[in-house]
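Practice problem 4.
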């Protein structure tokens, strides 16, 4: 069965305390290759049947209205993972 994957990230202008904590942990571990970490959310929606343009439009609406908080988050990706 196909899955639709929706990725949501905090808006770039907002602080990301979880990402900041991971960045600090990397620093304490001596990992210096990364200057910043941002942590988001991933949703996997299993589809019963075919993925159509209409279904993807419905997922986009749900992503904007339900899966993300548009004040502090952006939907950064919607893709079909077969």
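Answer key:
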């Amino acid at each position: 069965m196909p899955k639709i994957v929706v990725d949501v990230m905090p808006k770039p202008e907002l602080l990301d305390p979880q990402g900041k904590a991971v960045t600090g942990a990397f620093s304490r571990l001596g990992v210096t290759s990364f200057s910043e970490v941002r942590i988001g959310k991933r949703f996997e929606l299993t589809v019963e049947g075919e993925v159509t343009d209409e279904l993807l439009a419905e997922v986009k609406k749900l992503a904007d209205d339900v899966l993300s908080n548009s004040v502090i988050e952006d939907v950064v990706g919607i893709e079909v993972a077969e």
